[in-house]
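Re: adenosine-5'-diphosphate structure - here you go.
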Amino acid sequence: MIAAGEVVERPASVVKELMENAFDAGAKNIIVEVRNGGSTYIRVTDDGCGMSPDDVGISFIRHATSKLHDEFGLECIATMGFRGEALAAISSVSRMEIISRERGSEVGTQLILDAGEISEMGSFGCPEGTTVIVNDLFFNTPARLKFLKSDRSEASACINTAIRCALGHPEISVRFIRDGDEEFFSPGDGKLDSAMYSLLGRNETVCMLPCNSSADGISLSGYISSPSEGRGNRAHQFFYVNGRYIKSVLLQSALEQAYRNTLLSSRYPACVLFLNIPYGSVDVNVHPTKMEVRFGSEKTVFDLVYHSAKLAIESESRVDTLVEDIDFDHSEKAVSYETVHETKTGTDALHSPQAPYYNQLSLDFSNLSQNPQNSPVSSPQSPYLGKNVEKPVQNVKNSDISSYSIIGEAFKTYIIVEQNNELILIDKHAAHERMIFNRLKSQSRENSSQYLLSAMTIKLNPLDTEIVEQNGELLAELGFEIEPFGIGEFIVRAVPADMFDSDIGPAIEEIIEKIRGCSIPDPDSVKDEILHTVACKAAIKAGWLTQKAELDVLVKSVLSGEILYCPHGRPVSVPVTRKDLDRLFKRIL
Ligand code: ADP
Ligand code: MG
């Protein structure tokens, strides 16, 4: 009755199966350890319910499972495992040791198996819970051993698998040890954002948009990336159905369709999305490793993901409409499951083309709302996510960049930020200029120079020519790569990073003027003067449209205290307190 197939392809598959058993056992804490990419040693220890001596004795027998009691159970599977295959499959191709003590029991049991045959079994002193150790995977199947990749790539496959599993269970703490060193540790506090932070890292956690909603008994919760933060591939998409990590073309295309017109076509959104579906409405028994599922109603699922993601993206942009002129084309034909489905063919087609229920369901998505209460594992006001956030790790001086929000931009010149009891007005050009200036001053030339796509020629009069020729080293230090190219002509191959093409000629002229004007050449002050010029030319200008993400970077630098004045000494930000405003309006005197 089960989708048969090989479940143990490589060490990472063992890690997955053993972790899933620990989840099913109700563990709160799991430790996973691998050595040599898992090929010589994999250990998974949990503090779950454990097994009685009798159960230990049969747990490794093919199709022995405690999770199904009859064939009807197959129709509503609430556990990660249900086929009783994993321990059987793993033990038959390794030297396995199971140590387990049932909760409330006096003593534990140890079982040692050699290629699936019992070699030792007896009572054993151990804490409650289960430890499974897999030594020398594939030692008796040389053909499969040969197919293992290097220890390094098997280890990273194990880590990726463990991350996927752990991310699906933020309520369970997972520690991963590789060759004696801790690779990651998730706190198990039940919050999706802390799991994301510890498993995926800071960059994959901040700036994500909460995405929560429900329809027709199915709930969706999690985070998706802001359109300004596209990724180069799909490796950052994590979909879970009832806590199980799955691959699904349906979910992937529902998500990606929601970003249409907001994300470049070569970029992909990131997500950590949880679908909670009634057990009877999803079939997990269609794939040997349970990596794919079949949805009862693909249309419901598609529409839920698509509309919720679109809502999250649009509400972000509504907050920023003062800042960014993104034009969502509301007149476009709404994307639906059918339009996507029609265009898919062959191998790219969705898993179950015969889903029977499309036409019976009509969902009113006008009622679909951001519904944070639905989220089982995350709080929308999480401390690490969204834009009004306190970032946990900040490498800044004053580091007072807690809870600010960008209200908008006035005259395409001044960024208006609300923070605590103040409005802070920031001159975006001055702030950016200072940032570039600081970077130019602190970075080596290689980092701050940028090759032009097509080299550019400039014409100079004989006096200027002389200055450029005499100051080649200084110009190089600034990030310019300039070579003579005939009489009075130069070819420019590289310029300081961020400089716009149209500014290159004027910047060089200004630098020449500065060098010429310096009668007592103090190299350091000439350099600073020139850096001002470069920074000024490379900075965004007042009156330009600026992307929200760029404004955010500027605001962060200013609020962190990194930037106070522009290189010319003008202030970069001006605070207006709430009191000032209250006085202006005579609320207080
Ligand atoms: P399945 O998970 O599909 O039931 P497995 O071969 O993975 O099959 O495990 C067989 C049985 O062994 C499980 O049904 C369970 O009763 C028991 N078992 C395995 N691992 C654990 C564990 N970590 N804690 C408690 N019981 C376990
Ligand atoms: Mg299992």
